Amino acid sequence: MIPNQINPSENEGKIFENLRIRDTTPLQPAIPIITICGEIISTEGNLTTISGESKCGKSGFAGILISTALSENGIIKGIEELYVQPNTTGKAILHFDTEQARHTHKKNFLAILKRCGLTSCPDFFCSYNLKSLNPDEFAKVTSEICEYSNNIFNGIHLIVIDSGADYLSDFNDTIESGYIINYFEKLAIKYSVPIVIIIHTNPGKIQKEIGHLGSYFQRRSESVLTIKTDNDFSYVIPKYLRLADKKDILPIIFTFDKELGYHTGLKINNKIQFVEDSERFFTISKICTDIFKEGINLLHDQVIDSIIRKTRKSTGTANGMFKEMVAHNMITQGSDKKWKANTHYNYNEIEKIDLEG
Fold first, then answer.
1. CA 208 vs CA 173, 214, 253: distances in Å
2. pLDDT at 272
3. Are residues 167 and 204 located together in one domain of the fold?
């Protein structure tokens, strides 16, 4: 007999029955809302964290996620590995920004619409700038907007919060951090919606999510994606996943296209290619940008000489880099036989190239 065993009455046991999980508990399978390469990233009623150092492209990726959610088929050109379940019933898509100035927020907002081919904003996409509020008002206002949107649009499809750390005064305070993570979790459960929350990582080599708040997000999020940068490119890699295997997910690489006015994707074919080729690609892209400044036109031999001066590599290596610039359409040749920067360089069209060819 178990010592000090308590024998509650039948009525007392019923008080907690709604919290109990049995083999007969009627639960629907988790509905994936966001996937990458077919692997589950976000499901209804759970949190997803996007982390990264300052100015690494976190808000840019948030914009890509929202654009994908607004698209007709859940996919946008150039970043086909990312899928967001289409919002076929017109539920609310909510975006809260706590960091950007209003004019910057509007610029990013217009880029979201442009990326998915919209000329005007659908009523169900609601983007709010909370920067003018006091931080202690953020949670209250967010709750009120969620409740209003849920009633008006008969549900919420996706919530994106940039950034979660601004919802508390001290991200190193364990009590505050515990409170706010519980707040976000209850919000996700109440509306059966995935909530994507952006937070910073600590500066320096150890890229951990900031403070005690970051530790809570690591433990309680369904997935944690981290964004890193290399020159002008940002790439999203899975850090912690609850329902997927990291080895089956390709990194998402994106960069800002000044002509288009929004971030576009860089296509890769497999993870081995990314690991082996990305550093080389970024290096060659930077060399190309340095050599072919605005208005610079060079003959083939002049390009090779410039690469050698920049890299201190051999002629053979320089020729190899030149071939890659051409293969990736970084540079184009005019009728005068001179090479110049390709002003219409489209990162969406980049495929793995045959370096031997």
1. 16, 7, 21
2. 44
3. yes
